[in-house]
Amino acid sequence: MYSFSTRLTGNLDEIEQKLIGALKDEGFGILTEIDVQATLKKKLGLEKRPYKILGACNPPLANQAIDAEPDIGLLLPCNVVIRGEEDGTITVAFMDPEAVLNLVDRDDIAELAKEVRSRLLRVRQAMGGSTID
């Protein structure tokens, strides 16, 4: 598996703000935000459910990773998806950094990935909802 997630009920914007706050509590900032729903509407004229990709970054951990392996930026940042489901619930899905960063196949990077994963798991826990692995 390359992700883990939680499913929530409530207002999408409020859930997104709670998510950003929980990420901040774990040292992550949002570098990028891609509103896939709006892009598909604008570029293809498609009506889709809400779908955003947030590029989350913990600067000290990203710096360690880049110092250890300069090309690791190809695997960064840690993407988090917020999407509306057909039943009205909201899924928050996290890229599993251990699954992705293990592509590098180095012990020092594996340790960093484990730390990032534990932080993202705490974010998922802070969000509540029903967890999905």
From TrEMBL:
Residues annotated as signal peptide: none
Domain of life: Bacteria
Record Pfam families: DUF302
Domain called DUF302: residue spans: 34-97
Cross-referenced InterPro entries: DUF302 (IPR005180), TT1751-like_sf (IPR035923), UCP021774 (IPR016796)
Annotated protein name in UniProt: DUF302 domain-containing protein
